[in-house]
């Protein structure tokens, strides 16, 4: 079953065509890599799919919903979550608050009910214990009361991933989840991704530069070049593809 | 030099209550939610002008007396009638007061929600700041130039506070002060509880990084408009109380300077902290009263120095010093939102 489908996506930035008719298909429960040289349109594609960037033309279908003109909050409500290349936490807020924020349908998230604790305190307690589990998973449960700005770079990445999970997404779009992270931790981040897929059946679309790690974990890959899909296939097929080797590895 | 101590304290606390409402309003809008409202005076003046309109039109109607043109030849007569009603018919005065509060909250809230909803759909929230800054001044100029609203530049007097039926002026002003402090106290409780709830967490997230909040499923535009609705209602209520405390409505009171004064209160007290807003309002109220008293004393001594202007220099210096050395204010906000933190700590 298809989870995400982008059809013939075109994105223009002031006359520059960043995406030129890109179509991709992601099956439910798959881990798909998205690679390509700098400026090939990987991040733009991710932004367009996550609805943080307007689409020029084309179509985005997610889990049976047409998201082509939806806003980012609607995409998230349908179960499509994203991570950012630079840690994009709420740095003045605590680790726990960062984890609690994305939870959907919070009764205390309304100005008329919020002042009356009895409307939401029970739900908040349950949410906090769910958050505690996720924080434990990303090894941040000891730091729950710190401002997010106090964490190390790797911890920030982990918190960002944990935060995305709190919204119970069906699919996660990740933009270089290991950027600026030590090699050992980078591997661990991908092990978490694989474990999540095993346990929850979550779908992933991942932009990543560390191909040696990426190739170990993905089912298949899309290679973007100058705003177009250059090739698609399993890690084996991609590494043997001569066209890809030429533009990407330069040989 | 003789100072009526009790009278000074009553005046101080009354002004403090009104300033606190304005500061709590701006603290919620900018301090917590990051919506830069540079039009605080727009909403305050909506409250004040509403009071002017209800006291000249609604009050005679409620009292069963004929409408008298508030300006022009019947001006003195109309003032006398208003004052008469307020002193002899306490029920009518109180009903008129409550209705004034409701209408001003409704109008102020609608304007705040409407403008912000339109403006915040645009890319930059600073557009909203400019529209509100200019909006307050435009409203002032219109009201000043169009006589039927508040008698143009001569303003309206005889806008008595609801307890003026009490014979003893001091008792009446104490009663009004208590009412104002209760209203400010309720506004404080509401903001404090709001900040320490999941909604407060949402507001801070919107303040810190609205694109990320949006990509985590939050309808940022709606949240900001809600905050502007709440803040505008508080400011409009403060405007009604301000006008009634003065006893008159004059466009000269509702200038951009008032907005800036509220900003200094919030920055001084601590952005995002309701207690800080109260502290800031208190300190600036004292500063205002002290400079006013010094100005009067200096005038009586016969100096040419207009000390009132020093107030604005002082406000500017306070703002600069705070931003330079203590940008989080005297009482910084707390990082945690709800008490889920305390429970988890156990």
Describe the model.
The complex is a heterodimer of chains A (251) and B (346). In chain A, α4 (121-137) packs across α5. The two termini of chain A are 37 Å apart. Chain A contains nine helices and ten strands. Chain A has helices spanning 42-50, 72-77, 95-100, 121-137, 153-166, 183-200, 211-217, 235-240, 242-249, and strands spanning 2-13, 16-27, 31-35, 57-62, 65-66, 80-82, 171-175, 203-207, 220-225, 228-233. In chain A, the strands form two sheets. In chain A, strands 6-7-8-3-9-10 form a six-stranded mixed beta sheet, sandwiched between helices. Chain B is globular. Chain B has 14 helices and two strands; from the N terminus they run ααααααβααααβαααα. Helices cover 74% and strands 1% of the residues of chain B. By secondary structure, chain B is mostly helical. In chain B, strands 1-2 form a two-stranded antiparallel ribbon. In chain B, α1 packs antiparallel against α10 (220-246), α1 (5-32) crosses α12 and α2 (40-63) crosses α3. The interface between A and B is large, with 48 and 37 residues.
Itemize the secondary structure elements and their pairings.
The complex is a heterodimer of chains A (251) and B (346).
Chain A: E1 2-13, E2 16-27, E3 31-35, H1 42-50, E4 57-62, E5 65-66, H2 72-77, E6 80-82, H3 95-100, H4 121-137, H5 153-166, E7 171-175, H6 183-200, E8 203-207, H7 211-217, E9 220-225, E10 228-233, H8 235-240, H9 242-249
Helix pairs in contact in A: 4-5
Chain B: H1 5-32, H2 40-63, H3 75-88, H4 90-119, H5 125-145, H6 147-150, E1 156-157, H7 169-195, H8 198-208, H9 210-215, H10 220-246, E2 248-249, H11 256-269, H12 274-300, H13 308-325, H14 340-345
Antiparallel strand pairs in B: 1-2
Helix pairs in contact in B: 1-7, 1-10, 1-11, 1-12, 2-3, 2-4, 2-5, 2-10, 4-10, 11-12, 11-13, 12-13
């Amino acid at each position: 079953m298809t989870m995400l489908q982008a059809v013939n996506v075109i994105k223009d930035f002031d006359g520059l065509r960043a995406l030129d008719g890109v179509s991709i298909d992601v099956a439910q429960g798959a881990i798909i890599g998205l690679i390509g040289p700098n400026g090939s349109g990987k991040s733009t594609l991710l932004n367009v799919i996550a609805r943080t960037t307007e689409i020029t033309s084309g179509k985005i279908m997610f889990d049976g919903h047409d998201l082509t003109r939806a806003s980012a909050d609607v995409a998230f409500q349908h179960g499509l979550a994203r991570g950012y290349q630079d840690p994009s936490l709420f740095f003045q807020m605590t680790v726990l608050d960062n984890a609690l924020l994305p939870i959907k349908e919070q009764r205390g998230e309304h100005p008329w009910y919020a002042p009356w604790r009895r409307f939401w305190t029970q739900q908040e307690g349950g949410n906090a214990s769910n958050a505690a589990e996720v924080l434990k998973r990303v090894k941040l449960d000891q730091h729950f009361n710190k401002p997010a700005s106090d964490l190390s770079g790797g911890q920030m990445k982990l918190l960002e991933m944990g935060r995305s999970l709190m919204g119970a997404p069906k699919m996660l779009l990740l933009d270089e989840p290991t950027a600026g992270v030590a090699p050992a931790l980078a591997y661990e981040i991908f092990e978490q991704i694989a474990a999540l897929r095993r346990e929850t059946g979550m779908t992933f679309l991942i932009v990543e530069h560390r191909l040696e790690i990426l190739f170990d974990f993905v089912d298949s890959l899309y290679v973007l070049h100058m705003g177009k899909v250059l090739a698609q296939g399993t890690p084996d097929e991609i590494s043997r593809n001569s066209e890809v080797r030429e533009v990407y590895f330069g040989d | 030099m003789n100072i009526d101590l009790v009278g000074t304290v009553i005046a101080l606390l009354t002004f403090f209550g009104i300033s606190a409402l304005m500061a709590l309003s701006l603290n919620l809008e900018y301090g917590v939610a990051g919506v830069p409202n540079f039009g605080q005076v727009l909403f305050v003046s909506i409250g004040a002008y509403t009071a002017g309109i209800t006291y000249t039109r609604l009050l005679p109607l409620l009292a069963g007396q004929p409408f008298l043109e508030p300006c022009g030849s019947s001006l003195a007569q109309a003032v006398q009638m208003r004052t008469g009603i307020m002193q002899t018919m306490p029920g009518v005065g109180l009903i008129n007061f409550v209705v004034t509060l409701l209408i001003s909250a409704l109008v102020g809230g609608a304007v705040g929600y409407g403008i912000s909803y339109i403006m915040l759909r645009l890319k930059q929230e600073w557009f909203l700041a400019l529209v509100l800054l200019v909006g307050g001044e435009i409203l002032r100029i219109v009201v000043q130039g169009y006589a039927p609203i508040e008698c143009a530049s001569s303003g309206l007097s005889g806008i008595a506070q609801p307890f003026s039926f009490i014979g003893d002026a001091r008792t009446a002003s104490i009663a009004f002060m208590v009412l104002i402090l209760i209203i400010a106290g309720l506004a404080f409780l509401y903001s404090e509880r709001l900040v320490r709830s999941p909604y407060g967490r949402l507001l801070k997230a919107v303040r810190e990084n609205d694109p990320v909040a949006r990509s985590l499923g939050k309808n940022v535009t709606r949240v900001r408009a809600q905050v502007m609705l709440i803040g505008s209602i508080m400011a409009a209520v403060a405007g009604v109380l301000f006008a009634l405390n003065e006893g008159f409505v004059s466009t000269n009171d509702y200038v951009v300077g008032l907005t800036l004064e509220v900003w200094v209160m919030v920055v001084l007290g601590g952005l995002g902290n309701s207690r800080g807003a109260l502290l800031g309002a208190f300190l600036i109220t004292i500063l205002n009263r002290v400079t006013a008293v010094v100005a009067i004393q200096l005038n009586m001594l016969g100096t040419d120095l207009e000390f009132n202007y020093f107030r604005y220099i002082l406000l500017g210096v306070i703002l600069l010093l705070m931003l330079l050395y203590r940008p989080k204010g005297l009482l910084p906000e707390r990082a945690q939102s709800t008490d889920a933190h305390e429970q988890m700590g156990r």
